[in-house]
Amino acid sequence: xxxxxxxxxxxxxxxxxxxxxxxxxxxxxxxxxxxxxxxxxxxxxxxxxxxxxxxxxxxxxxxxxxxxxxxxxxxxxxxxxxxxxxxxxxxxxxxxxxxxxxxxxxxxxxxxxxxxxxxxxxxxxxxxxxxxxxxxxxxxxxxxxxxxxxxxxxxxxxxxxxxxxxxxxxxxxxxxxxxxxxxxxxxxxxxxxxxxxxxxxxxxxxxxxxxxx
Length: 213
Ligand code: PRP
Hints:
This protein is α/β, with parallel strands linked by helices. The protein contains eight helices and eleven strands. It has helices at 15-26, 60-65, 76-82, 122-131, 147-150, 165-169, 189-194, 196-211, and strands spanning 7-12, 42-45, 50-55, 71-75, 87-91, 97-104, 115-119, 136-140, 156-161, 172-181, 183-187. The strands form two sheets. Strands 2-3-1-4-11-5 form a six-stranded mixed β-sheet. The chain has a five-stranded mixed β-sheet with strand order 8-7-9-6-10. Strand 7, helix 4 (122-131) and strand 8 (136-140) form a beta-alpha-beta unit. It binds 1-O-pyrophosphono-5-O-phosphono-alpha-D-ribofuranose. 1-O-pyrophosphono-5-O-phosphono-alpha-D-ribofuranose binds at residues 143-146, 159-166.
């Protein structure tokens, strides 16, 4: 008799992770203890052979790349920014937004000048402006990026736009879309090989669940 392999799943803490968990649950990978109100970070359903843990959204790819998690849910923005050595198994079609360039409504670009770009995503920004042969000065921030052009710290920002409300309410406007973003099911490469039956079955059930929802 072969021992059932435990699958470790890294979920991004927050709204997206909770939504993703509900899909796993509906696909037959429930773990009732996860719904208990407490500060625990790890939840296990031994019978189902699954273990969930909550991690900071931008850390999911680190856990998966290094094999601490077999699979995880990560935004395409994080995958593009960090280029982790992992497999992208499925587009979950949730957490949809876009990576865009935004600026003050009256900003007029002068291509002869170095563009000051504030962002949490320096690699995505560099790649984008490189493809346009545009010289830029990256200002790496960790949040509230919208403040940068308002306070004159940068000319533009490269950031996530979901509803556009944050830009609008701060008198900024989106100018160019760099790439569309959504949540992806990702897997560790070694796990994908050695726990292939379990991961493939899980991926199929989850894709089916997404298709029917
Ligand atoms: C993201 C992004 C924008 C906002 C966009 O911020 O950086 O600020 O959401 O959403 P909207 O288009 O629906 O207004 P997040 O909540 O991740 O916080 P932070 O970047 O300021 O840390």
